[in-house]
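Lab meeting prep.
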Amino acid sequence: MGRKVCKNCNRKLRFDQFSAHKRAKDGLQYQCRECDGYRARRYYAKNRKRILRQRKEHRKTEYGGRKCREAGEKYYRTEHGRRTQQNRNFKRRYGITLEQHKQMYADQNGYCAILVKYGGYCAITVIGCWGRQKIILWF
């Protein structure tokens, strides 16, 4: 892996210790992540009151508060948004994606592997409900 000299601390560091900068000739920031973090903390400490005031004012505007929530709600009403949300929820609850679940279900010929072991079966039916899909499991 290549190396680069930080213009701030003059240390020779690996490329992965620099953040990306698409306009730079080598595609990396001129200062290392450690120096950049130090600079950002100093700036925030010096300008904390102004930054917090600006954030508070922005949240009061139509773009800072209500508009952001409305945009999120509109996104999840679209087909892509619903699929994204279903996939995220499935991943969080069961540790697999919706596509992985569908593949497992197909590989098991529509049977639940746990219940087959004990002589039962698992039927999964997908029904439409107010434009959204719900997965209903019964044994």
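Slide two material, second protein:
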Amino acid sequence: MASTYSTLKLELMTTGEKSGTWGTITNDNEEAIEEAIADTGSVTFASAEFTLTLTNTNATQVARNLRLDLGGTSGGAQHIVVPTIEKLYIIDKTPADTITVKTAAGSGIAVPTGKTMYVYVDGTNVIDVITHLTSLDTTGIISVDDTTDTTSGITGSIHTDGGLGVAKNLFVATDAEITGVTTHGGNVISDTDSTDDLGTTGARWLNVFTDSIGDSGQVLDVDSSSVRLTDGVVFIKEQAEADADQDDYGQLWVDLATPNTLMFTDDIGTDKNLSIAVVSDTATQVQTSTIIVNMIEMTQAAYDAETPDANTLYIIVG
């Protein structure tokens, strides 16, 4: 009886045949086994689909190799058709386009440009070798590209039924969409200065609980009918003058005077002193206080012609 061949095309000799050649055939079979578990075969595209076949010989065959190194010119998205047997492949893809690894009748697995994938031919189709890991530890970068999560429906998303623990930094190039509650034990930090927002014009945060808001020169924009402080005090750092005027806005600030004074500046740049002036009547020993909302420097002649306002401090000069 003549020899037969296995799925990977190892020669299976029958008893009594091939006298004197068993050693050579056995060596060739062992090399074929090595090819299937450790070797690399090269596939060179020429702007067309590439089909791999296995024939009845234990001589070297590209389709038998564990790793397939894809090269050449793809000329657009292409297929590499592998034999419809049970087999593992490592696909190392270098062409400029997506290459789908498939059987003649299967749908296959698409390998993105420049990526390496581990796939399995199950005797019908090409499928992923690994679809679940109980844990993953890496010191490098995990990239998510061109995939759609069935829960979020967002291309390039990561979905977890448990938690996502990040020991150091989590970088998101565009948007991080969170539908539940986010808790953290560290800092929420922007990687740019004065260009990032918490919330948007159409979607504001309901409540913000914070020990402090810094730093100097930044703006806290509260779009609400009121701002309520339920406990504590408001500290305002003193400065030399008000900031630039803004239409429809007034400024509350603290002047550098000693002791410093509370100031209000309207939208046309008029400074008003809000300090409380204490006046003592030496005759009655009664102290009265008035809120000074304006301060004007003028000459004595101008003051004599003025109708004094109780909440204005007049400073006579000249």
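Talking points for slide two:
The chain has two helices and 19 strands.
The helical segments are 22-38, 300-304.
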